[in-house]
């Protein structure tokens, strides 16, 4: 049993190493850029060893999406849980998302935007995996906005999904523009736009200021 | 001379045929998906014939960006010129952009967003070509917003570039979401958000309604 556990632990460790590299490759070169040969060479492993860990390229792509989701949750969602439900948590999510992109948690910026734009015209299991990952984020952001509405913190807002769409739009534009122009200004533009939008919905300026968005 | 002109005309015609296909391939599979071999096979030409028209893959990618810019100008910028400078032209640009994406003028949605996200982490001549193409669009949208400001049609607006950033963000999000989910709802969300933003800047509701945005 101990030997089996040891082998399993080494397998899990190898999987993590390969997936960490896979996420960075995919954030720069797309999920199509992920090949078992390239990964094996990057992590100094044999092709057959990497193939044994994942099976097909498609399974590798799906495992990479899941691993990226876990990294994203650790960078954005988990730290936001430290803030009380409602507008304070929404503001924390905004600040953390902008930081996640600006700090290049993934080498090529937001993994999910890169993968979405790559796969959006290509139906199949990989696009479905990505849609599931995005739905988890959309759900979390939407529910968080919903709590702020329930608590009367966004008195002019009637549609949480609409606001989530607008915030995601500003996030993604800041990510793409920042990468293209090698500039941090787009994050400032996104922050300015989101703060103005929240204020127009009746958010208290003190809460935004406290979160570093005001 | 006549013979030379005939040869040149045939060369231009072949170039146009190949580039029309190249734009659609790139909008789905990215600029990296453009290979001389694939294009030759798609348009039933010889590889050497296509190679003679473009030279290198990089030159083909740059020519494709220019050709896509011309198609975009014809679909969005030229028809907007029919509207008077100022808020009416800004509203026309919004309606035309959303239509350009929704009607899939390019097979895989907005060519420029797909290419931006693909190239944003990859410095080089292709990214530079794309940055130039985007700067032309940003400039046109920014100047158009500037005319609306000068004419007092957006009395609360102080920064044309900021508004252009926000409008582009909503355009691009609607494009990606619509493709991913096979839905037109994201265009409605973008239209709603842009109309609300223009109204919050003091735009006259009648002008928005007249443009089909209200």
Automatic annotation (TrEMBL), chains A, B:
This protein's record includes keyword rRNA processing: no
Domain Tetracyclin repressor-like C-terminal: 86-194
Keyword Calcium belongs to the record: no
InterPro entries membership: Homeodomain-like_sf, Tet_transcr_reg_TetR-rel_C_sf, TetR_C
Keywords: Transcription, Transcription regulation
Pfam families hit by this protein: TetR_C_13
Domain of life: Bacteria
Alphabetized Gene3D superfamilies for the sequence: Homeodomain-like, Tetracycline Repressor, domain 2
Protein name per the record: TetR/AcrR family transcriptional regulator
Species per Swiss-Prot/TrEMBL record: Arthrobacter cavernae
Source organism phylogeny: Bacteria, Bacillati, Actinomycetota, Actinomycetes, Micrococcales
């Amino acid at each position: 049993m101990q030997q089996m556990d040891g082998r399993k632990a080494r397998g899990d460790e190898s999987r993590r190493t390969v997936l960490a590299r896979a996420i960075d490759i995919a954030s720069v070169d797309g999920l199509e850029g992920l090949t078992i040969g390239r990964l094996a060479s990057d992590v100094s492993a044999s092709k057959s060893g990497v193939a044994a860990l994942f099976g097909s390229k498609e399974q590798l792509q799906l495992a990479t999406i899941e691993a990226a989701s876990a990294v994203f949750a650790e960078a954005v969602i988990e730290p936001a849980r430290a803030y009380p439900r409602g507008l304070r948590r929404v503001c924390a999510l905004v600040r953390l998302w902008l930081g996640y992109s600006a700090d290049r948690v993934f080498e090529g910026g937001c993994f999910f935007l890169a993968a979405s734009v790559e796969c959006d015209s290509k139906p199949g299991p990989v696009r479905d995996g990505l849609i599931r990952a995005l739905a988890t984020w959309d759900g979390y952001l939407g529910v968080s906005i919903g709590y702020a509405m329930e608590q009367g913190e966004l008195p002019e807002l009637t549609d949480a999904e609409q606001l989530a769409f607008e915030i995601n739009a500003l996030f993604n534009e800041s990510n793409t523009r920042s990468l293209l122009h090698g500039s941090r200004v787009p994050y400032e533009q996104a922050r300015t736009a989101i703060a103005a939008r929240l204020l127009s919905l009746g958010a208290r300026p003190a809460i935004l200021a406290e979160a570093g968005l005001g």
